[in-house]
Automatic annotation (TrEMBL):
One Pfam family it belongs to: DUF6385
Lineage start: Bacteria, Bacillati, Bacillota, Bacilli, Bacillales
Organism: Paenibacillus antarcticus
Name assigned to this protein: DUF6385 domain-containing protein
InterPro entries to which the protein is assigned, alphabetical: DUF6385
Domain DUF6385: 149-229
Amino acid sequence: MDSVLGATITAGTVTNILNGTITSVLGATITAGTLSSAGTVTNILNGTITSVLGATITAGTLSSAGTVTNILNGTITSVLGATITAGTLSSAGTVTNILNGTITSVLGATITAGTLSSVTSISQRSFIEQSTLGVATTNVLTPLPAITTSVLGTYSFFIQNTGANPVNTQLQISADGTNYYVDTNGDNPLAAGAIDVLVPSRFLKYTRVAYVSANPATTSTINVIFNAQGT
């Protein structure tokens, strides 16, 4: 059909379209071809939908959409500003880009970019590591930069004395990033070549390691490695 003006197709089945384009169809079943704009499409075989507003897609490929309420056995390659309000995405390869979108239920999907603001459960926790190596100690108690631990479930500090003299270490915690409380002291004095692991006993928003030479007249060096898992 090259051109239809002022017509409404309310029912029927189009079984084969070769090199054709249907610009507007209501209540129809399309088995092949290209559909550029539609209300509700119940079945698509070997077809591509490039733009759908307020439609229900049960099978096929959806490349760009506003709001999709239900998708069964479909693939979404790119959604900009879309909201998926109902249904279950039971099988998905990769959703490559979501901007200002909301997905309410996803099973077996890979999200490579975007922000996930609400999650019921995650099967594999994230891992964080931060290393500060070759830190020189003096006779002045000195803290390392604080780490924001408010969103972390489990975390600890690996301390290695790589110098020639003993050192003392401690964990300090803070709620405001300005005023710090000594939460845990290390296995002091930590001898040259020795290793210790500091784990906080209390929870606050910020956590940091502080260090000092055990003997005021000597210096040493330490490596500090922070390991953490997300909640």
